[in-house]
TrEMBL record:
Residues 132-159 form a coiled coil. This is Uncharacterized protein. GO terms for biological process: DNA-templated transcription. The keyword Coiled coil applies. InterPro entries: bZIP (IPR004827), bZIP_sf (IPR046347), TGA_domain (IPR025422). Belongs to the bZIP family. It is found in: Nucleus. The keyword Signal does not apply. Pfam families: bZIP_1, DOG1. GO terms for cellular component: nucleus. PROSITE patterns: BZIP, BZIP_BASIC, DOG1.
Length: 399
């Protein structure tokens, strides 16, 4: 029977024989399961095992070789497994390196997207700051204008602009616009001249002055009425709200005013009781004039109501709680549209004054000179009584 043995090589030194118990060849074969045809296994510090055939091993080599102890054998096995783990770790490390490279590439792409988003956010924030700055500047400009208007209003109150003969100075007409103040002053002078002309006309009627001389006085009063309509047209271009609200009139006059003045139809009703006797033709002319005046007033009133409704809808379309610098463009657009609609108010004032002027002219043509003189006196006395009523009302005891 051919014998086999396990041998191990030491690369740096000679073989050292341990104290392990030698086994005979038969026991080795039985314990390890080696067959006679198998080769011998050479154990060395290199973890790789090599097989040697029995024919290449001489009996003299048995004394120079030994069997490893169980601890050393375990170390050999551990060394082999450790080597395998190291190889696996290297392969896993290579995989991790490739994965890390992909992660770095994805990270770079993500960083580029983040930088782009950051740049976009910065640009949006910059534009928002610019819009906010413009909005603040607009508010500051409006505040400065408001302060100027308040100063002008206080100055006007201190100066005190009084209007009208027979009208007490209890009420002071004042506005924040120079055009409105100028109109108030012009109206005060006009009213003084008007009262002087009415006094002359009253004296002429009472003295039974001739028709030719009386006609000159009547024509002078009619021309003077045309002057106030011209002044109102100029005042409407300066401050339409001042003209339509009648701030240049007394409280009682404002109570009965319509589109910045008196109602022609109501004035004709007042005259109807003071111009008798009238011919049938004159009565028909006065009735037709009153009817046409009423129709024109109704049409203008409906137009004014439609304008107010349209203006309210324009202003309410953007008042749903939206605010901030992003809505400045919409806000300014709505204000521009509203301003355009307010421009038509001047036309309503002009149409109202034109109706009043035409009513006076038609009345003058229908009536005789003496009747026209009495009509002008009645109209003047009516408004004088309204001014006196305002003075008495303001001077009443406040208990």
């Amino acid at each position: 029977m051919q014998s086999f043995t396990l041998i191990g090589e030491d690369e740096g030194s000679s073989f050292i024989q341990t104290q392990s118990q030698f086994l005979n060849l038969g026991e080795l074969v039985q314990s390890t399961g080696f067959h006679h045809d198998d080769d011998a296994v050479s154990l060395s510090p290199n973890p790789k095992f090599c097989l040697r055939s029995a024919g290449s091993v001489s009996p003299s080599e048995f004394g120079n070789f030994y069997f490893e102890t169980m601890g050393e054998s375990g170390m050999a096995q551990h060394t082999e497994s450790s080597t395998d783990i190291d190889v696996d770790d290297k392969s896993q490390h290579g995989a991790l390196v490739s994965v890390d490279s992909a992660d770095v590439s994805n990270g770079k792409k993500g960083d580029q997207k983040s930088l782009r988003r950051l740049a976009q956010n910065r640009e949006a924030a910059r534009k928002s700051r610019l819009r906010k700055k413009a909005y603040v500047q607009q508010l500051e400009s409006s505040r400065v204008k408001l302060n100027q208007l308040e100063q002008e209003l206080q100055k006007a109150r201190q100066q005190g602009i009084f209007v009208g003969n027979g009208y007490s100075g209890d009420q002071i007409h004042s506005t924040g616009g120079n055009g409105a103040l100028a109109f108030d002053a012009e109206y005060a002078r006009w009213l003084e001249d008007h009262q002087r002309q009415i006094n002359e006309l009253h004296s002429a009627v009472n003295s039974h002055l001739g028709d030719n001389e009386l006609r000159l006085l009547v024509d002078g009063v009619m021309t003077h009425y045309e002057e106030i309509f011209r002044l109102k047209s100029i005042g409407g271009k300066s401050d339409i709200f001042h003209m339509l609200s009648g701030m240049w009139l007394t409280p009682a006059e404002r109570c009965f005013m319509w589109l910045g003045g008196f109602r022609s139809s109501e004035l004709l009703k007042i005259l109807g009781n003071h111009l008798e006797p009238l011919t049938d033709q004159q009565l028909l002319g006065i009735c037709n004039l009153q009817q046409s005046s009423q129709q024109a007033e109704d049409a203008l009133s409906q137009g004014m109501e439609a304008l107010q409704q349209s203006l309210a809808e324009t202003l309410a379309s953007g008042s749903c709680g939206s605010s901030g610098s992003g809505n400045i463009a919409d806000y300014m657009g709505q204000m521009a549209l509203a301003m355009g609609k307010l421009g038509t108010l001047e036309n309503f004032l002009h149409q109202g004054d034109l109706l009043r002027q035409q009513t006076l002219q038609q009345m003058h043509r229908i009536l005789t000179t003496r009747q026209a003189a009495r009509a002008l006196l009645v109209i003047s006395d009516y408004f004088s009584r309204l001014r006196a009523l305002s003075s008495l009302w303001l001077a009443r005891p406040k208990d």
